[in-house]
Amino acid sequence: MKMKKNDGFTLIELLVVIGIIGILAAVIVTNYSNAQKQARDSSRKASVETLASAFAMYKADNKTYNLTGKGCGYSTGDGNGWVNFSDNDPARPISIGTYLKNNGYLSAPLIDPRCDGETDTSCVVNSTRYDYMTFNNCTGSVLASIYARLELPSDGDTAAVPAGCNGTMIPTSEGMNYVRDLN
Questions:
Q1: Partners of 94 in the β-ladder
Q2: What is the residue range of 123's domain?
């Protein structure tokens, strides 16, 4: 009696191969997503350093970090707040980023990598605001820090955030988890 030769794969062999491919695909997609987040975080850290350099040049020229009449300033345009925010209020007619660019301290506005390149606005992605933030001390004469929101902060990135006026910590309440202290 002659035995029939089997030329195909069994169903179990095919299911094992499909399962292995699925596991590999899941690992690759996860790593790709994390790589994108790490790249955006690196860009944010570089932008914070660029802002720190711009503010250092501004202070050298003006003997202060205070940018009166710029930024949201939480009410008065005192140079505090979101770097790329302005509105039609006469107290804050121009964003901090645009002011620094227009006066030669930045070559271009620094826009968060999650945003689409708009200027004079803080972008919101999935109910999360992405922008850079400055925060002065209570007298407004010394810029204490520049903040950013990292997507994958490491333990070394999340330094203690200094308290602002009256002990408030507005940057952390806005989700800022990376700080560059200028003092």
A1: 70
A2: 13-181
Closest by alpha carbon to 79, among 70, 91, 90? 70
Please report whether residue 177 resides in a domain: yes
Per the domain annotation, does 8 fall within a domain?
A: no
- Specify whether the CB–CB gap between 47 and 37 falls below 8 A: no
Count of structural domains within the chain: 1
Q: Single out the residue of 141, 132, 136, 134 nearest to residue 165, CA to CA.
A: 136
- Among 49, 63, 48, residue whose Cα is nearest residue 171: 48
> What string of DSSP letters covers 121-148?
S-EEETTEEE--EEEE-TTSSSEEEEEE
Question: Range with the lowest mean pLDDT among 7-16, 65-74, 100-109?
Answer: 65-74
Note the pLDDT tens digit of each residue in 21-55.
999 999 888 888 888 889 989 998 998 899 889 98
Two structure tokens written together for 114 = 């999650």
Question: Is 6 inside any structural domain?
Answer: no
Q: Is residue 78 part of a domain?
A: yes
Chain segment 86-143, per-residue pLDDT in tens: 666 666 667 788 888 888 999 987 878 877 655 445 566 666 666 777 766 555 445 5
- E-strand ranges in the chain read 81-82, 123-125, 128-130, 133-136, 143-148, 178-181
